[in-house]
Design a protein that fits this description.
Length: 382
């Protein structure tokens, strides 16, 4: 693909926060179990002392109505275990789609949270404005079929640069290689682990994301769902089930491919099946596309599907088109990276952390941006 097919920077920024009205409906709040996903509370918010006295009282009233619905916040929840009923909400930064500037999260001014219809007092800690490290887990699901030969080295090197840039943050990164089947993986961990995996001796091109960092993942891959041809969905599901996700961390899956989503005869691996069963607590799926122009490519549901559709059905999902050799890919300068660096921690006092709740997270930035996400039947993980 030549540079004429690249999305302009402004378009990329708008995509970062733009969501269709259809995705604003309420969603189930159940997360995969810690046993299934390997979730492990560690670092991040757990290093911040719980102190209910620093959280403002509930202000009364209600969150403002959203009219534009041109953004949608994504968050993960974690209840403290000290009896204080404090709930911690990790939210990725958001960029105003009109001004292209980061939204300053201010309690009950630009960001609002209601529990069972009660507007909650909020304490907000910004990772960018303090020494606090807030957790984010990112998995790159990389197409390593033969068609990716031209861009494979560039993508691997850009991921290493991205990981090194975020060393100062509490970011864990993992990789899944796929060609419809799971052909390689390294679990979520520090940037040095990913760099070592991608720089293994005698590996180049697509081989850099083939092979497993341990026998546990290799064994799991043998029975993992698969397609006959390229499909990022098995990679997302494999990472979700087998990787060491941290309970308090924001979750991001980055689907990297130059081919359509090809589920074959497995209806469980179609875009429709994934999107129907997805909820915001499971994370967001940005797409990096190095194939032909998305808008002019013919897609067929059930056999040759648009991979960008995985991004439009998940909160915070974005699509970035790059050249066929990915020479113009620079993850360190993307708005997604800026959003990660501006992750915020919201704290509020729940009526009872042991019960199930409906939580509504609303963001309103003046007259230029607003949106909300509803978490129904939400049980706060601990």
């Amino acid at each position: 693909m030549d540079s004429r097919h690249r999305a302009p920077v402004g378009h990329w920024i708008r995509l970062l926060v733009a969501f269709s009205a259809a995705t604003a409906a309420g969603c189930s709040g159940s997360l995969p179990s810690e046993e299934a996903s390997g979730a492990k509370p560690s670092g991040g918010t757990s290093s911040i002392p719980a102190d209910a006295s620093k959280i403002p009282a509930d202000p009364g009233g209600a969150a403002p109505q959203t009219k534009l619905n041109n953004l949608r916040p994504a968050a993960t929840f974690q209840a403290t275990t000290d009896g204080s009923n404090i709930v911690r909400v990790t939210t990725l930064g958001l960029i105003d789609p009109v001004t292209s500037k980061l939204i300053d999260f201010r309690p009950n001014d630009t960001v609002y949270l209601s529990e069972d219809g009660i507007l909650k007092g909020l304490r907000i800690t910004s990772a960018a404005a303090s020494s606090t490290k807030l957790a984010t887990d990112i998995v790159f699901v990389i197409d390593n079929s033969s068609s990716m030969d031209a861009e494979a080295n560039s993508i691997a090197d850009k991921i290493i640069a991205f990981a090194n840039l975020l060393k100062a943050l509490d970011v864990h990164i993992g990789i899944v290689g796929q060609n419809g089947k799971i052909t390689g993986a390294i679990n979520l961990g520090p940037s040095t682990d990913v760099e070592g995996y991608l720089k293994r001796s005698n590996t180049t091109g697509t081989a850099r994301t083939k092979g497993f960092a341990n026998t546990t993942l290799e064994t799991a891959a043998k029975t993992a769902p698969s397609s006959a041809s390229e499909n990022g969905i098995p990679g997302v599901l494999f990472a979700e089930k087998n990787f060491a996700w941290r309970t308090e961390a924001a979750r991001v899956f980055v689907n990297v491919t130059d081919e359509s989503t090809q589920p074959g005869s497995n209806k469980e691996l179609t875009t429709k099946a994934l999107c129907t069963g997805w909820n915001p607590l499971r994370g967001t799926i940005p797409t990096i596309w190095s194939g032909p122009t998305l808008s002019t490519t013919k897609w067929t549901e059930g056999s040759s599907e648009n991979p960008a559709d995985l991004s439009t059905c998940t909160p915070g999902g974005v699509v970035l088109s790059v050249k066929s050799d990915a020479s113009d890919l620079d993850l360190t300068t993307l708005p997604m990276t800026e959003a990660l660096r501006n992750t915020s921690l919201l704290e509020f006092v729940s009526s009872d952390v042991s019960k199930t709740h409906e939580v509504v997270l609303t963001v309103k930035n003046g007259t230029t941006a607003d949106g909300k996400t509803t978490y129904s039947n939400l049980k706060y993980p601990k």
